[in-house]
Automatic annotation (TrEMBL):
Residues annotated as the enzyme's active site: 174
Ranges of residues in domain 3-hydroxyisobutyrate dehydrogenase-like NAD-binding: 169-284
Record lineage: Bacteria, Bacillati, Actinomycetota, Actinomycetes, Kitasatosporales
Keyword vocabulary terms for this entry: NAD, Oxidoreductase
Name this protein carries in UniProt: NAD(P)-dependent oxidoreductase
A Pfam family assignment: NAD_binding_11
UniProt organism field: Streptantibioticus silvisoli
InterPro entries in the cross-refs: 6-PGluconate_DH-like_C_sf, 6PGD_dom2, 6PGDH_NADP-bd, HIBADH-like_NADP-bd, HIBADH-related, HIBADH-related_NP60_sf, NAD(P)-bd_dom_sf
Keyword Oxidoreductase: yes
Length: 291
């Protein structure tokens, strides 16, 4: 029988809520905290306990899973909870924070006496709901047995990339993957926007690519959403905007010129200003037409 542990999930947005549900399904004890309490409340029906604040959530937790928007949000929540963290607890940090965002989190983990596992995930709403995420992980060997109980519940595959989370091997790889993901999202949105502008039937465009080397399941999924004007967030646009900034910033710091990434960051930022932040990232399509 699999060992049951107590897990605190901080951040119950699209991804955190789905991950908390899968931890509950696996039989673990789960306490959730979310800045906006109403967004955590549906998890009570699944068996979660709602905490009043991050400190209340992490008390007695064997593992703390953070899944908030960005590094500063994670830092603030875990710093406020630090006095209540169990010494030796395992902190599974799955929010996309980039190597820069990870550095202060690693310092905080050392200060608080907990084991940090840098554990960004690949996969969006549906894989998260189905417990089919891919986990990129880096953390100390003594933390792995507990971390793997979490990963077994939320994911289909874990790739271990190193023992020292401060090296940010997992967070660096995650940015590389997301630079590709954002390229497909923006490429899909702009191709469909151009088709609309030029009076081209989008079905002709998608039909030409079908089954060939230019085709991609992600293109199909995102194109279907645009054509149905279904903006339900799978990968929220505000998160994509944050990732685009992380990618452009990381490239600048390592001396690599990424013109498309910079343009992508500006495009997502404009879409957020236009009020599309809570929609799916492919709603960047709308930024081609709004003022
Ligand atoms: N969706 C995806 O496809 C996907 C895939 C892989 C990784 N990720 C990463 O997973 C993380 C969560 O993404 P998501 O898709 O679940 O986004 P989401 O649905 O927008 O949820 C964001 C979460 O962050 C919280 N948050 C935002 N700012 C905060 C702050 N200043 N203080 C405290 N909490 C704050 C939100 O709380 P409120 O409810 O109060 O706003 C919410 O719990 C992000 O780092 C994202 O990049 C997402």
């Amino acid at each position: 029988m699999t060992q049951k542990i107590t897990v605190a999930v901080l951040g119950t947005g699209v991804m955190g809520a789905a991950m908390a549900r899968n931890l509950l399904k696996a039989g673990h004890h789960v306490t959730v905290w979310n800045r906006t309490r109403a967004r955590a409340e549906p998890l009570v029906a699944d068996g979660a306990r709602i905490a009043e604040d991050p400190a209340d959530a992490v008390r007695d937790a064997d593992a703390v899973l953070t899944m908030m928007l960005d590094g500063p949000a994670v830092l603030e929540a875990v710093r406020s909870a630090a006095p209540q963290l169990r010494p030796g607890a395992v902190w599974v940090q799955s929010s996309t924070v980039g190597p820069e965002g990870l550095a202060p989190l690693a310092a905080l983990a050392t200060e608080a006496g907990v084991h940090l596992v840098d554990a960004p995930v690949l996969g969006t709403r549906a894989p998260a709901e189905q417990g089919q995420l891919q986990v990129l992980a880096a953390g100390p060997r003594e933390a792995r047995p507990v971390a793997e109980l979490v990963f077994d519940a939320i994911g289909q595959r874990t790739v271990w990339l190193g023992d020292d989370p401060a090296e940010a091997a997992a967070s660096r790889l995650k940015l590389v993957v997301n630079s590709w993901v954002l390229s497909i999202i923006n490429g899909t949105a702009e191709a469909l926007a151009l088709a609309r502008g030029l009076g081209v039937d989008p079905g002709e465009f998608l039909g030409l690519l079908e089954g060939g080397s230019l085709d991609s399941p992600y293109l199909r999924m995102k194109a279907k959403a645009v054509l149905a004007e279904d903006w339900t967030a799978s990968f929220p646009l505000s998160g994509a905007a944050k990732d685009a900034r992380l990618i452009a910033g990381a490239a600048e710091r390592c001396g690599v010129r990424l013109d498309v990434a910079e343009a992508s960051a500006r495009r997502f930022a404009r879409a957020v200003e236009q009020g599309h932040g809570d929609k799916d990232a492919v709603a960047t399509y709308l930024a081609s037409f709004d003022d």
